[in-house]
Specification:
The structure holds two protein chains of two kinds. By secondary structure, chain A is mainly α. In chain A, helix 1 packs across helix 2, helix 1 runs parallel beside helix 3 and helix 2 crosses helix 3. About 8% of the residues of chain A have low confidence. Chain B is α+β, with helices and mostly antiparallel strands. In chain B, 18% of the residues lie in helices and 27% in strands. Chain B contains eight helices and 19 strands. In chain B, the strands form five sheets. In chain B, strands 4, 5, 8, 9 and 10 form a five-stranded antiparallel sheet that branches. In chain B, strands 3-2-1-19 form a four-stranded mixed sheet, with no helix packed on it. The C terminus of chain B is likely disordered. The chains are: A mainly alpha, B alpha+beta. The interface between A and B is large, with 46 and 34 residues.
């Protein structure tokens, strides 16, 4: 697999966690790469292309997610959270993991991003701050709040 | 189980559900870096730079004038490769790439002129309205190319009543240093109906003759006595100079082996190639029930039967992607296999017309045979070393 495709795969995985839908995740990553190609001439530090891609993907996920939940709510008038994890996905990852994903997607966008970057990608606070384009303090508080909220939601579920 | 662990497990499990993704669809290479302005520190003698440039130009001009009069070095006595019909030993300077142009239901292809020394696209030739470029063949000077094109708008060919899509041919010339850099001229070669299967096009090393190997069963004024023909056309006048017939024997279904398209390129499944002498053509030929062979045809000798006039030089392995590498062990075939690699031929970014791929990447099965013929390391666009992101036709620049 060429390096570009390998990077794309890891980015699609990140976007899938954020969005819950692989096809939407692939679209987001494709757009991010196209954006990078357009930006290529003016990119200051080309070694940071991956960081740039990651930030673009997160940003696009935020937009896409906002749109999709709004649509879901409007069309189905159903509690938004349950629809966010598809039946297929829940069968693949199991009941317990599914609960976590539902709770995760119910978090405010910034908290969700902070939690995913810190726990899934194992980024340190500086790297996460860079990817989210916020300060280090914001990452710290968003992670802590997100984690507390998740713990509360999961406890309520049981 | 702590909440941290639960988050880690759940996200990792979700990520693991993504096993395969569709390939990225990207432009051939990232746009080249914009030139930065030269900064001259304040207080230094910045005015010296234009002056030095002017002096350099004058010196070069003076040397050129002096050298022109020295016998043996002058312009008139230095033959260009094109006039001698020789294969350039090194990588040719310019190459053409067929690139898919997006848009609606009809797919069109444009042409990009690539400078192989920098890897940059130096010019793009947009397809004429209603016409898509399909195949390319270059002369030895790598400044002259023949381009085959098919129309998507229907035309009435002379002597027929039906409206149909037609094949036509263009000549593309690259004139470095002039403006426009690239000129495209439609050739006067009589158009053919789209039913013609073009198995090979080859522009002669001197750029004066275009050889077209085709298969056409539709009757009409273009019918030359047999379904298969090899014709030589004059590039300047479009007149058919020679016709060889082939394929008269009972109904060959697919007269050219299909694996030929992994050795040749689009529009050249038969690997039709001029040898360096400028008069011998090499091509693969496949009689039904027999192994495909490489034949050479001396176009200066009389005769109009392709098989009888040509000579079999090598039997290809009957199938398989390693035809090119296996053939390399034999001397004659080595020459034949090496020719397309040295020739300024097209790197085709799209496999075969009949198959429609969602992306412009070619499927991996074709990579083996043609990797050595087409993938040539080329200097990087922008900074740092750039690798081919794969091998064979359909390769793209990778920014990493």
């Amino acid at each position: 697999m060429p390096p570009r495709q390998a990077h794309a795969l890891s980015l699609v995985r990140l976007a899938k966690i954020m969005l819950g839908d692989q096809s939407a995740a692939e679209d987001v990553v494709q757009d991010a790469f196209l954006g990078l190609y357009r930006k290529w001439p003016s990119l200051q530090d080309r070694n940071r292309a991956l960081a740039y891609l990651r930030a673009t993907v997160l940003n696009a996920c935020r937009t896409a997610y906002r749109g999709s939940t709004r649509r879901t709510r409007a069309m189905l008038l159903a509690p938004a959270a349950r629809d966010i994890v598809s039946a297929e996905e829940s069968a693949l990852i199991g009941e317990s993991n599914c609960e976590v994903m539902v709770a995760l997607r119910a978090l405010p966008a910034r908290q969700r991003e902070a939690v995913v970057l810190r726990y899934y990608l194992d980024l340190n606070e500086d790297q996460a701050a860079q990817a989210m384009n916020v300060s280090r303090g914001t990452v710290k508080s968003a992670t802590s709040r997100g984690r507390t909220a998740l713990a509360r939601m999961l406890k309520e579920d049981q | 189980v702590s909440i941290d662990d639960r988050i880690r497990t759940a996200t990792a499990a979700t990520a693991a559900t993504v096993r395969e993704i569709r390939p990225l669809t990207l432009p051939p290479d990232p746009a080249p870096a914009r030139p930065r302005r030269l900064r001259v520190p304040r207080g230094s003698a910045g005015w010296l730079i234009p002056l030095a440039a002017a002096v350099a130009v004058i010196v070069v001009a003076a040397i050129l004038v002096a050298v022109r009069d020295v016998p043996g070095i002058g312009h008139a006595s230095a033959p260009t490769p094109a006039s001698q019909g020789q294969v350039p030993a090194a990588l040719p300077r310019y190459g053409l790439v067929l690139t898919e142009a997006g848009g609606g239901g009809v797919q069109y292809s444009n042409l990009s002129v690539i400078d192989t020394r920098t890897g940059k696209r130096v010019a793009q030739v947009k397809h004429p309205a209603g016409v898509s470029f399909e195949g390319v063949s270059g002369a030895a000077d790598d400044r002259t190319f023949a381009v085959s094109a098919v129309s998507s708008t229907l035309q009435r060919l002379p002597g027929t009543t039906e409206m149909q899509s037609v094949w036509s041919w263009y000549l593309l010339r690259i004139a470095p240093g002039s403006s426009p850099l690239v000129t495209l001229t439609k050739l006067a070669i009589p158009p053919q109906p789209q039913d013609a299967a073009i198995y090979g096009i080859a522009l002669s090393p001197d750029g004066r003759t275009l050889a077209v190997l085709e298969w056409l069963t539709v009757p009409g004024p273009w019918y030359k006595g047999s379904p298969g023909t090899l014709q030589l056309y004059s590039v300047a006048r479009g007149k058919a100079l020679r016709v060889w017939q082939w394929g008269k024997s009972p109904d060959p279904i697919d007269p050219v082996p299909s694996y030929g398209d992994s050795i040749g390129s689009d529009q050249n499944r038969a690997g039709l190639t001029w040898l360096a002498d400028g008069r011998t053509l090499a091509f693969t030929y496949y009689a039904r029930g027999q192994a495909p062979v490489v034949r050479t045809l001396d176009t200066s000798r009389p005769g109009n039967d392709l098989v009888a006039s040509s000579r079999e030089v090598f039997t290809l392995p009957s199938s398989g992607p390693d035809a090119c590498s296996e053939a390399r062990s034999r001397r004659t075939a080595e020459r034949w296999c090496a020719a397309p690699r040295c020739w300024p031929t097209a790197v085709v970014t799209r496999p075969y017309r009949k198959k429609r791929w969602r992306s412009t990447r070619t499927p991996p099965r074709r990579a083996n045979a043609s990797a050595s013929c087409t993938a040539t390391p080329v200097p990087a666009p922008g900074t740092g070393p750039v690798r081919w992101a794969g091998s064979g036709p359909g390769t793209r620049w990778s920014p990493w």
